[in-house]
Specification:
The complex is a heterodimer. Chain A is mostly beta strands. In chain A, 11% of the residues lie in helices and 37% in strands. In chain A, a hairpin with a 2-residue loop joins β1 and β2 (8-11). The longest helix of chain A is centred in the first third of the chain and has 7 residues, at 17-23. The radius of gyration of chain A is 11 Å and the shape is globular. Chain B is built from 10 helices and 10 strands. In chain B, strands 5-4-3-10-9 form a 5-stranded parallel beta sheet. Classes of the chains: A mainly beta, B alpha/beta. At the A-B interface, β3 and β5 of A face β4, α3 and α4 of B. β5 of chain A pairs antiparallel with β4 of chain B.
Amino acid sequence: MHIHVNGKALDVAAATLAALLRELEYEDGAVATALNQIFVRKSDRGKTPLKEGDAVEILAPRQGG
Amino acid sequence: MEAEMDSDLGGDRLTLYGAEFSSRLLAGTAQYPSPAILSRAIAAAKAEIVTVSLRRESGGSRSGERFFALIRELGVRLLPNTAGCRSVREAVTTAQMAREVFDTPWIKLEVIGEEDTLQPDVFGLVEAASILTRDGFQVFPYTTEDLVAAEKLLGAGCEVLMPWGSPIGSGRGLNNPYALKSLRAHFPDVPMIIDAGIGAPSHAAVAMEMGFDAVLSNTAIAKAGDPVKMARAFALAVEAGRTGYRADLMQARDMAAPSTPVIGRAFSSRARA
């Protein structure tokens, strides 16, 4: 399936957001996720299906002003 | 006398959404030469609140986790931001993501409206603040000195305001002191933190002398030749400015007025009655 992750085009096998994090080797607890600009709670990732063309954001803590 | 001063300052607490703090200097965590210097600078600033952000991370990278671990070690309160967001949707989603990762209802809300000045889009800011306060967030809106925007942000449920001094990272200090004084005077009981544009300890001191409740500084400390020493300078300036404000500054006047007594001056032409 062809999707965008953090602005980059990728072909992935994962059927859900939780599976995508595992496939791309993210630590589940250390990141926050959004699907098509809508926030997806950590507890909802397993029941959030992915479909062709989705845009996923995976964000982690960073320095800020 | 010193003990009296210390005890006086000890009772002068900064209250933000019901939480109390001794320090009135908030510090950003970006642009430091190294994590070690960041840690030492935060300690030297005596900051109890630091700003953080969320950014894209590649799978397998653990840099976000390492940064978060470092910040947790500092034992400070975190104020996540929505830096760089240019729409209400982006800002609201980023705030929701930050709440989950950083486990705090606090959010420094930025909705940027203009590229050159990075000035807030106050219309989008009010809309995003309204959505977020209804969702249980405690919003710290990064705003201009505009009185109407301030009124609307308060109406949207914000209990703290963060007016800019000047554009982010410019180091220009307080660009519009008249409007900032007016803002302070219109909302005397609203905690206000001067955010953005502070370039020198003297800028921070002036903001505090004007009666603002706190100052947030990032670039001025992080990009200094010696960030740790500059952090200490900012801590001193904020304390000096606050103490000066509480001591009630004299009014400036147009004409000179001698400070040394005139009566009894030698060589005067005749004795005064």
